[in-house]
Amino acid sequence: LGVSAPAPAEASAREAEATAPRNEAGRSQARPSVADVVAVDMAAGRSNLGPRESLSSLTDEFRFNLKFGEKVRHLEQRGYIGWRRIRGDGNCFYRSVGFGLLEQLIVSPVQRRMSFTAVLHDRLAALRFADAEQASAHADFLGRIARLRSGAGWQEPPRSGAEITAFGLLYRCLRDPKNGSDASLIRALRRLTADYLLAHQNEETAEGSGITFNDVCVCSDYDSVDDFCNRVVLPDGRDAETLCQQALPAALGIAVRIAFLDREAAKEANFQDFGLSEVGGKDKPQQWQPLVHVQLRPGHYDLLYWREASSESDRVAAAAAAAAVRARSPRAQAARARARPPTLGAEDFQELELMRPDIHKRSKPGFCL
Fold first, then answer.
1. DSSP bridge partners of 212
2. Residue 332: is its pLDDT beyond 60?
3. Hey, which end of the chain has fewer CB within 10 Å, N or C?
4. C-alpha of 84 from chain center
5. Longest dimension (CA), the chain
């Protein structure tokens, strides 16, 4: 009888156990944890993504760095409940944002998913690849996005075996480096980033700054935006730099919040938003926009989870709608008449809690972003 090869997770567990410390009798002192197995998988290039974990495992990884542990506890105070390991091969920023976006779309209501993926599909369909193999892989990737646009799942579920959820199909597909969808996703996101920078190279990086994207590239020792894209954005495995953090969310039409877990002495993590100010607006106060949370440690990005996958975008949209209603209320008009500044503290948050009882049950009073 032939002996089948062990599954990747089983092989990883065996490898982790083989390298574990042993006692005098030669026995392993402790069985490898899930985190150990995932770390072995990623280091060996067998996995692009890890399972969702609690923030406690993130603290455990840096238990000898007290400042880092304080920053993780600050994340918990801000409402974050978990994280996901992302393979660190130079593509971690694009993989984090890309998977985080697709995950939100998969778990979103069908109509919301269909509406946003229609726009996403059009943006991706405009990309052209000269290499025939890359063009074929991109066409297959577009087919998966088209399935989401039509209300279907990421791919057809297997006809045999245990039932797999819609998210499970996405996770298994993008987790496997041999599948090809991960490479297609990263390649497309890099192209979208480059195209955005080239199209907006003479525009200001921030309103009123007077500094254009081209100015930033030249001051960073690149000849131009085109040179920056050819050397930093387009090559596979090249780490994302600051302009990429701004350009990718704008190119996708989403928002990205980055939590910086650096080595600074401060006890709290710093946050920076890209694209979040574009959520809603005067004309469309209830427009939904995906918001992806990522953490940046020195040289590496991982995914973060704030309560539920899509609740943050719901909260922002609800807050915008509530603000529009309050602006027309007699109370707001009287406040303006007294030249009283708008309240953006606990009073507004309590009103939001009444609108969203599901948030009220999970939130701590006084929490604000």
1. 204
2. no
3. N
4. 10
5. 87
C-alpha–C-alpha distance, residues 116 and 50, integer Å: 26
Average pLDDT over residues 92-102: 98
Query: Which amino acid is present at 59?
Result: T
Answer whether 288's CB lies under 8 Å from 112's CB.
yes
At 205, phi and psi to the nearest 5? -70, -30
- Render pLDDT for 241-258 as a digit per residue (tens, 0 to 9): 999 999 999 999 999 999
> What is the C-alpha separation between 351 and 234, in angstroms, rounded?
46
Query: CB within 8 A of 321, min separation 6: which ones?
Result: 280, 285, 286
Q: Any idea how long the chain is?
A: 369
pLDDT tens, 120-140?
999 999 999 999 999 999 999
| List of residues 6+ apart from 72 with CB closer than 8 A | 55, 58, 59, 62, 261, 269
What residues form DSSP beta bridges with 259?
271, 295
Compute the distance between CA of residue 256 and CA of residue 248 in angstroms, rounded to an integer: 9
Whole-number Å distance between alpha carbons of 214 and 139: 32
For the chain, where are the alpha helices, taking DSSP H only? 8-18, 34-43, 55-61, 66-77, 92-107, 110-125, 132-149, 166-175, 181-199, 213-219, 225-228, 242-252, 311-327, 330-337, 346-355, 357-362
Element (H, E) at 300: strand 300-306
Exposure class string for 173-211: b at 16+ Cβ within 10 A, else e: bbbbbeeebbbbbbbbbbbbbbbbbbebbeeebeeeeee
CA distance 260 to 279: 22
Whether residue 190 contacts residue 129, with contact meaning beta carbons closer than 8 Å, is answered with no
Q: What is the DSSP letter of 277?
A: G
Strands 80-86 and 49-54: antiparallel
**Three-state DSSP string of 7-75:** CHHHHHHHHHHHCCCECCCCCECCCCCHHHHHHHHHHCCCCCEEEEEEHHHHHHHCCCCHHHHHHHHHH
Indicate the Cα dihedral angle 130, 133, 138, 143, nearest 10°.
Answer: 130
The pTM of the full predicted model, rounded to 2 decimals, is 0.74
Cβ 29 vs Cβ 20: under 8 Å = yes
Q: How far is CA 305 from the centre of its chain?
A: 9
Residues 293 and 262: their CA atoms lie apart, in Å, by 16
